[in-house]
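We emphasize that the prediction below concerns an isolated chain of 256 residues; any contacts that depend on oligomerization or on bound cofactors are therefore not represented. The input was used exactly as deposited, without trimming of termini.
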Amino acid sequence: MKRAISSILAGVLAMGMLAPSNLDARPPASCSAGTIYLTIDTGWGREAERIAEILKRRDIRATLFVANEPTHRGDKSLEPGWAEFWRARAAEGHVFASHTDRHWYFRGDSAPGLVRFVSFDRKNEIRLDQAAMCSELNTPIERLRAAVPDAVVLPLWRAPGGITTPNALRMAEACGFRHQGWTANGFLGDEVSSDTQPNAALRDRALRSIRDGEVLVMHWGVRSRKDAYANVLEDVLAGLQAKGFCFGQLNAEGRR
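Result of the prediction step, given as a token string:
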């Protein structure tokens, strides 16, 4: 999946454009270029506080897909040590959705009503039936609500890596969750190598290609990226706002 994404980006990033020159530009009074939707998956969390500050400064509210992933602190992202962080995001008006609890990957349908769920390192694998699928999607929300009882949670979910199967989609729907991916130009690229896809190129691609209605995806930091995407995030957000884009939030129906 990541190799495919990297190959696509390599071709798209061949041309560049200038960075936005005015980071103090305020959000547009009217959405002349349209409305776009920022979503954030849990990730490594290393730049989480910095990213949150940027979003607050830009007056942008996102949809946060949460999973109980390992973080740079040596804990997991929905453990008590992160409660204050999630409470602050809820207070700022961000909304939440499920990203599965374990953040494993769906790797095929093994039988009717069963889906393979495999860890990133492929050392662990289980078969989820309907009840187990519902538990996998509901558990991160239960963990979140233990820390943030008043969090606004949408009936949406996102599969890790955006990888779904027919059974996973059907079973999630039966649990009351609608899958929300990202749109054609919405992958901001913070997961790919900064050696091959530097921040300036990702910034230029975003400002050149994002269109009205796009669902964007990024993370609260990615362990493998040497030059953190947070270093260019404000350039991207300010540039999009300067072009006349407003940032909206997803609703219960999601977007395609």
